[in-house]
Amino acid sequence: MEKVPRSLVLGATPLFCLLLLTLLYTADIGSREVPSSQWKKTDSGASRIEHQHDHLHFLMKRLLKGENQTQLEATGFACHYDIHTEVCVSNRPIRIDTLTMTVYAPFNQGMPQASRRIRPYPKEDDKSTMRRISSVQVLQGNISPPPACEYTHNVPAVVFSSGASSGNIFHEISELIIPLFITSRHFQSRLRFIVPDFDIRFISKYKKIFSHLSSYEVINPAANVSVHCFTGAVVGLHYHDNLAIKTMDVPEGYSMLDFRQFVTESYNLKIRDLSQMEKPTLVLISRKNKRAFMNEDQMVTMIKELGFRVIIAQPDMTANLDKFAEIVNSCSVLVGAHGAGMTNAVFLQKGAVLVQVVGLGLEWLSNITYGTPAIGMGLNYIDYKIEPEESSLVSLYGKDHPVIVDPQSIASKGYEAVKDVYLVKQNFNIDVVRFRKTLVNALELLGRSAPLG
């Protein structure tokens, strides 16, 4: 191979560095939030503006379906409605006054002005939750004069409320994190979140998620009272089901496997071959009051005898989500009673086993919240159904009480009745001999066999 003269290499190095710095500087300037008093149009021409608008229109159109897509093309604004949520989008420049949480969305000339209020949280069917959500006003039409821009952003805004986040990981991931993924992932981080009912604990807890969905800091309207201008906006989040993504629902194309891959990237989790691990690890979600394992020590002894390395996940361990995600990701089997802790299954490796202990009266609820979703995540799923003699409810009500022999009669009274009896008052004394068979099944799903004896 012919050598390149050293003088040429050395001579080219400063030029290369200069070009690199120029590119980095240009990219940095393009992503910054700029006060309008300092903002100047730097676009090279109409063709570039048209290309950007076409791309934004394509991204916004994915969030709609059928006639709503046609309306977006005709007016620049359209909304999607379903039983769970309302999502409105604009593919034209908008202004957001964070003092009043008012979105000024332009319409075509000659169209009448309109106003609507949206509660940007995807649980329209849950009235008690929605009462805690502040509304966002959307003014459609050519408002004259609109408020002056104080900050101009060259990306669209996504507006949603974190007002219902309560520290419960099931509700946070099912009702906010997954909806955020399916609503905003296709923007490839080129968007900015505005969060009314701003909850700093929620934002901090999922900082790794937010940093992978957006290249920009989240805006807290209460702490940033001003008028922000964006290239477009999405108000509200899409929601499909409990811990689920339906590939054919709006926006089409995503699955829970895509979400789990996104989680793996966000938390920098390792991809392991579970069959090659010398000793399988089992994480046991430990609860201290409701749906607690009263003979947890016996369970742990039996689990170790099967050859598992056991990690008992106490509440203080699960509170640090970043660290606990790594722990769950390292295990082959996750075991727990029905409850929010089962949501950590999103951090499991593909092919791992989720074992859910299903209390009396909780079969339907356990299945829709974790059983069916686990399959969609690419996990192996086993449920261990509690027998009456394993439930503390027998000592409270007696073995012949309707609570024990006819749970459906309690369920017919509504969710609050089920919650009061089966979720709040029930603990478990696990039959370790019977439960051992469940864990032997889990080992077989991992391609392993239980030790003899």
What is the makeup of the main sheet?
A: 7 strands, mixed
Tell me the number of strands.
Answer: 17
- The residue fraction in helices comes out at 25-40%
Point out poorly predicted stretches. 1-32, 36-45
Q: What structural class is derived from the secondary structure elements? A: alpha/beta
- The largest beta-sheet arranges its strands as 1-8-11-4-5-7-6
Kindly report how far apart the N and C termini lie. 67 Å
Mean pLDDT: 89
| Percent of residues in β-strands | 15-25%
Radius of gyration: 26 Å
Shape: elongated
- Helix count, DSSP H or I runs of 4 or more residues: 17
Written overview of the protein:
The chain is an alpha/beta fold and 453 residues long. Helix content is 37%, strand content 16%. It has 17 helices and 17 strands. The strands form three sheets. Strands 1-8-11-4-5-7-6 form a seven-stranded mixed β-sheet, with no helix packed on it. It has a five-stranded mixed β-sheet with strand order 2-3-12-9-10. A five-stranded parallel β-sheet has the order 14-13-15-16-17, sandwiched between helices. The longest helix has 26 residues, at 6-31. It starts with 5 loop residues before the first helix and ends in an 8-residue tail after the last helix. The relative contact order is 0.09. Mean pLDDT is 89; it is low at 1-32 and 36-45.
